[in-house]
Amino acid sequence: MSPLMDRREANAPYRLIIGYLSIFIGLAGVICLLPLLMIAIYPTEWGAYPAFLVPGGCAVVVGIILGLILLKRDNKSRLGKHQDSVLLVLIWLFTVFIGALPFFLARYLVTGPADPNQLTMSFSEAVFESVSGYSATGYSVTRELNFLAGIEVPLTDEYYAKSCAHVFLFYRALTQFFGGVGLVLIVTSAISDRYGLKLFFAEGHNDRLLPNLAKTAKITFSIYCGIILLGSFVLWLFGVDYFEAICQSACAMATGGFATRYTGFYYYFTEAYPGNGLFTYNYIGAETTMCIIMLLGATSFLLIYNLITGKVKNFVRDCEVRFMTIFLIMAIGVGTLFCTLQYDNGAGIDGFTAFRYAGFQIISCLTTTGFGNAPSINILGPGIIGLSILAMIIGGGSGSTAGASKQLRVVVALKQVWWSIKFKLSPSRQVRPHNIVRAGKTVEVTPELYKENSIYLLIYLITAVLITFCVLLVPNMSAENSLYLVTSGLSGTGNTVVDFLAYGANNPLWAYNWLLWFMSLSMFLGRLEIMPMYYAIVRIGKDVLHQETV
Predict the structure, then answer these.
(1) 76 with 13: CB under 8 angstroms?
(2) Which of 246, 285, 201 is nearest to 37 (CA)?
(3) pTM for the complete prediction?
(4) Tell me: the pLDDT tens digits for 189-244?
(5) What Å distances lie between residue 516 and 20, 147, 485, 490, 498, CA to CA?
(6) Radius of gyration over alpha carbons of the chain, in Å?
C-alpha cells in the first residue's frame, strides 16, 4: 500500500470526528438562536437580535455544510481507541467558544434602544461566562445584564430595553439547561448513531434506564424537562415571577446556579422582591422547592426513574441515597451549630434562621448548584465554609447533572476502608464478598473497580491542588480563597468568596485574565470529569507522532 493511502487511512477517523463534530456545531448555533424567542415576549429588547443571529446562523450553516461533506453513508471508517474522547473534548470546546460569541459580540452588534456599554464583555470574560454556563457552574462576570433589579437601578421598561436583560438571562439559563443534562444526551435523544454509546458514557451518563440507548436518552431528557417545568410551576404558585421561576428551576435542576439577580437567590428573601402579583410570595415555600429541585438534579436519573415507576424500594436502598441522607443530616446539624455561634463574626443568629442558612448552603454545595439564601457565604462563618468545601469535593450522585468527585466514588472508598479494618480485626480472616447496592441491584466492588476509583479520586485532588497553585500566583489572592474558588469551579458549584469584577477593577489586567482562564480550565475539566481530556491529549499526541495505540 502506498504512503498516500496509509496517510488517508490514518486521517479517516479524524474526518469522521469532524463530521460528527459538525452536528454539535449546528446544535451550538441553534442554542444561540433560541433566545430570539424572548424578543416576541419582550419586544423592547429587539436590539439584541444581531448578537445571537450572526454567530448562531453562521454555526448552523457551517455545521450543515461540514455534515453534508463528511458524514457520507458509505463511510467505512471507525474511531480508534480514545478517539471518542478526542471528539467529546472538541464538542465541548467548540460549543463553549461558539457560546461565548453572543456575550463578546454584544457591544459591537446590539442595536436599537439597547446600551452597548451595559453589555461590554472582553473575550476572556465571554469565554469564562460560557464555560460557567455549559459546565453548569454558575460563576458570573456579567455587569448589569443579570441585575434585573440592580441595587441602584429602578425597574423600568427603559432599563430592560437598554440591558436586554431578559434575552441574555434566558440565554444563560439555556447554556446551563443544555450543559447540565449533557450535549451528547441531547443529540442521542434525537438521533441514533453508532458512536453514541461511547460518547454517552464518556460524558458521564453511566446508567441505562432501558436497554436501548436512544430510548434511555429520550426518557432521561423527558424527566429532566418535566422536573424543570413542575418546579417552575410550583415556584410560580409560591409567588415567584414566571420568567424567573423558569430560569431558576432550570438552573437548579442543571445544578448550575446562574442567578437572575445581582444578589443571587438571596434577593428572593428580602423585602425588595415584589413577587408575581398573582400569588402572595412565600419565601419558605420557594426555598424548600429549590432545595428539592437541587436534590433531584444531584440524584441519578436511573434512581428518579425507579421512583417514578413505583420502585421505591430500589430508590431507598441505594447506597448513594443513603450516603446523601446521612451526610446531609450530620452536616446540616453541625452547620446549624456553627452558623448559630459564628454568624457575622460571632454576632449570632436565631436557631431557625441558622438552620435555613446552613441547610440551603450545604444542599447547594453537595449538589454543586451554588445558590445561596444568605447575604454572603463569608458572613456564615468559617465552620460553614469548611463544610461547604467538603460538600463540594464529594458532589452529587453518579449519573446526575451534578459534578465533583461523585458520591458513588466516595462510598466505594469509605466502604473499602471499612472492609479493610473489618478484615484485619476478624479472627478468622475470612474473605467475604465486597458488595454495594446500586438502584436495587447488588454490585460487587472488584479490586479493579476499587483501583480505578482510587486513581480518579487521587487525580481529582492533584488537579485541584495544581490549579489552586496557579491561581495563587495572581496578586492579592489568599490560599484559602484560591482553594475555595478552585474547589467550587472544579466541582461545578459556582459558590464564590471573591467578586471577580471587583478583583478585575482593583488588580492588573493580566492577573484578572489569568484568574479567568484558569478558573475556566477548572470548570471545563470538572464537567468532563478530567479523564477524557487526558485520554484526548495522549491520543492526539500519539496520532501526530504516528504511534500505535493498542
Answers:
(1) no
(2) 246
(3) 0.85
(4) 655 555 555 666 666 666 666 656 777 778 888 898 999 999 999 999 998 888 88
(5) 30, 21, 11, 13, 12
(6) 24
